[in-house]
Amino acid sequence: MAKLDIITLPDPKLRLVSAPVERVDDDLRRFLDDMLETMYEAPGIGLAAIQVGEPRRVVTIDVSGRDDEARKPLFLINPEILSSSDDRSIYEEGCLSIPDYYAEVERPASVRVRYLDRDGKLNELEAEGLLATCIQHEVDHLDGKLFIDYLSRLKRDMVVRKFVKAAKSGVKPEFKPHQREEM
């Protein structure tokens, strides 16, 4: 497995709409494994392929925690949110592509998602809580949307300016070890 480079704001690729995966094969499974390793090392709980510069509808998620033995990775290929609850929940979200910035985001409390697994089998999953939030966050990435898009224009513009300034100065924001995990 190989660790992949995570792109960060203001990289315009983050705003691309990802293309559906046509075939689940060994090359895609290797890519999924690389994404998972990259996500764990970051550390994060979710990673969309576009975050490593690949505009494909592929997501890795693991909300089980940091314990290696408790890990329960979830691979979503061509995920589609079929329904979402009227009930809302608020989570403090972070993003591996917007390192060290966190904000409370309100989203549906539960979702039903259809996807292909790493073997190409069609599945549906009912998710709630942190898993539902993470799925929505990652599917947003596949559609070119970032969690900061849910913030006020003032806050969003402030975050974007910070990352544009860092990019112009040639200093890429680094991932710093912390207690929170990012999506």
UniProtKB/TrEMBL annotation:
Cofactor(s) the record lists: Fe(2+)
Q: Which residues form a coiled coil?
A: none
Q: What is its EC number?
A: 3.5.1.88
Residues the entry annotates as binding Fe cation: C95, H137, H141
Q: Which GO terms describe its biological process?
A: translation
**Per its UniProt entry, what is the enzyme's top EC class, as one word?**
hydrolase
Record-level Gene Ontology MF annotations = metal ion binding; peptide deformylase activity
Residue positions of the active site: E138
Reactions the enzyme catalyzes = N-terminal N-formyl-L-methionyl-[peptide] + H2O = N-terminal L-methionyl-[peptide] + formate
Q: Which UniProt keywords apply?
A: Hydrolase, Iron, Metal-binding, Protein biosynthesis
Q: What InterPro entries is this protein classified in?
A: Peptide_deformylase, Peptide_deformylase_sf
What domain of life? Bacteria
Q: Which Pfam family, an example, fits this chain?
A: Pep_deformylase
**Which Gene3D superfamilies has this protein been placed in?**
Peptide deformylase
Where does the signal sequence lie? Answer: none
**Role, per record:** Removes the formyl group from the N-terminal Met of newly synthesized proteins. Requires at least a dipeptide for an efficient rate of reaction. N-terminal L-methionine is a prerequisite for activity but the enzyme has broad specificity at other positions.
Q: Which PANTHER family match?
A: PEPTIDE DEFORMYLASE (PTHR10458)
HAMAP family, from UniProt? Pep_deformylase
Task: Report the sequence similarity comment from the record.
Answer: Belongs to the polypeptide deformylase family.
The protein's name is Peptide deformylase
> What organism is this sequence from?
Kaistia hirudinis
